[in-house]
Structures are given as structure tokens and as C-alpha cells.
Amino acid sequence: LLVKEKSLKEELFKLNLERYGGRVEKPHKFSLIKKDIARIETLLNEKKEK
Predict the structure, then answer these.
(1) pLDDT per residue over 1-50, tens digit each?
(2) Sheet strands (E) in the chain
(3) Minimal CA–CA distance to 32: which of 49, 15, 46?
(4) ∠ Cα 37 13 32 (to 5°)
(5) DSSP character at residue 24
(6) Is the pTM of this model over 0.90?
């Protein structure tokens, strides 16, 4: 999960660079990636509490 979270954060960073560069092809990916990151963080936090 940690590897997946890191790759999603890197992808989000690249999308942000594209957004400020003015050439985003798929703007809907921002919300999808953020939701995936939140899901992973929730799972990791649940595992920590146990």
C-alpha cells in the first residue's frame, strides 16, 4: 500500500505541474487520484490502530 500511495502522489504532482503549465488532458483524474490516496491512508490508519 505504501508503494501504491507513493506512486499516486507522484502522479498527482505531475498532474499539478501540467495544470499550471496549462495543458491538462484529463482534469477528472485529480479527484480520482485524491480519493484513491485517501482510501489508502484510511486503510493504513486502521491497521495502525489495531
Answers:
(1) 889 999 999 999 999 998 888 888 888 899 999 999 999 999 999 998 87
(2) none
(3) 15
(4) 40
(5) -
(6) no
User: Which residues have CB under 8 Å from 4's CB, separation 6+?
Assistant: 40
Q: Which domain holds residue 15?
A: 2-49
Give how far Cα 35 sits from Cα of 13, 19, 21, 23, 39, Å. Answer: 15, 18, 23, 22, 6
| The three three-digit cell numbers of residue 40, written as one number | 489508502
Total domains present in the chain: 1
Q: Which three cell numbers stand for residue 24?
A: 491538462
- Residues 9-18: b if buried by 16+ CB within 10 A, e if exposed: eeebeebeee
